[in-house]
């Protein structure tokens, strides 16, 4: 609130402090994705006024189960389920327009009415992947421009280095590359002078065709479709920065930011190059929406009670054995976006602590505890060793990470069904012990424990 600040930087001057405004609550993945962010956002969204996506694209797949109905969201914020809240897609997101409308229409059929009236899209968001399914419909109705490039790049990686990244092939890397190389096209360009937009669109197509000569594009057909999308999108588009400023500085409002992907997939802090192309850590909430750091409130980290990873890359606690198979089948660990089986292993507290170093979590949501119900014993990775010596940091170099030896702590399994537990005291003592250990080791309070897919299956601790 307003007030006079004490001594400013030792100058003896007093300065006036502005009204700090409302704070945004941020929900972030603390592992390699699919921790259950959608479910945590859904829980908080019942009270939120604005729910925002700040980064990523439809590489994300967030599942929410309400009244026995399962919704999958890729580009729409999971809060779109709440008819009383506004959903915002921020400038940091790369939007696949046909994908967005397809997703909305699909959910509309499931009963999600009026979503277009509750959605706001930032005019600064990139539509690099607007070159969509239709773009290449002249010869294919399955792939799109950036998706094709994504696929071609994967083939190149495989040929040159003998390994690819295992991307979702949604064109995320190529879209963010266009943004960084300053040839990308944004929502405001699409809604501006269409002649200018068309020229830039053609230039972008040429740029890609010079890199990938096999790429065929029916430009005129595409521009016609884009014009139609522009009109459907127009009523939803706002200046995202000003919208957010008003939300932060107007009357009290609950603002929720839904992270996509996760800390270990972050372009700067993740297991590079086996990462996605955006900042999935807390800074992404600021840059992807135009929120000042001062207006960031709670930062909730979501972590599964074990670890999963989709795609390629180091995974120190991976269990290529019966335990991994059990976690995969019991946990239904299949990618929402790609349908690929997720790789599974023990909870790795080294990575969760690393995610906490970057994000400064104020609390943790620990999900899928129920999946561990049948295990005789449960292990938790607590430290990495190199040449027999513990290392205090998380290695940047993937060759080093491949070589670490994980030090485990072993816990007896509780061998009890926890899926009906609704409060702390309903949990078996051995499960409570497991949770308390995790909390102490990360040094962050656990606020929720997930014991099932639906909304009610979330034990709130405080
Ligand atoms: P997100 O990408 O982080 O939103 O997570 P996903 O939706 O991709 O994957 C999480 C999966 O776990 C979804 O199928 C959820 O319905 C499910 N889920 C979330 N929390 C729990 C839980 O506590 N127990 C069980 N059994 N399933 C859960
Ligand atoms: P949510 O939001 C799990 C992974 C891909 C691949 C790498 C790069 O559901 O947690 P990309 O298509 O982004 O270029 O792929 O990142 N990946 C995810 N894995 N959950 C996600 O999102 C992911 N988003 C990207 O599998 O390894
Ligand atoms: Mg997911």
UniProtKB/TrEMBL annotation:
Residues at which IMP binds: 34-37, 59-62, 168, 182, 261, 276, 340
Example of a GO MF term: adenylosuccinate synthase activity
Cofactor notes: Binds 1 Mg(2+) ion per subunit.
Family: Belongs to the adenylosuccinate synthetase family.
Positions contributing to GTP binding: 33-39, 61-63, 342, 368-370, 450-452
Subunit text: Homodimer.
Catalytic EC class: ligase
Function: Plays an important role in the de novo pathway and in the salvage pathway of purine nucleotide biosynthesis. Catalyzes the first commited step in the biosynthesis of AMP from IMP. Plays an important role in the de novo pathway of purine nucleotide biosynthesis.
Top-level taxon: Eukaryota
Pfam families: Adenylsucc_synt
Species whose genome carries this gene: Sphaeramia orbicularis
Biological process annotations from GO: 'de novo' AMP biosynthetic process; IMP metabolic process
Binding site for Mg(2+): 34, 61
Any one cellular-component term (Gene Ontology): cytoplasm
Pathway: Purine metabolism; AMP biosynthesis via de novo pathway; AMP from IMP: step 1/2
Matches recorded under InterPro entries: Adenylosuccin_syn_GTP-bd, Adenylosuccin_syn_Lys_AS, Adenylosuccinate_synth_dom1, Adenylosuccinate_synth_dom2, Adenylosuccinate_synth_dom3, Adenylosuccinate_synthetase, P-loop_NTPase
Biological classification of the source: Eukaryota, Metazoa, Chordata, Craniata, Vertebrata
Protein name: Adenylosuccinate synthetase
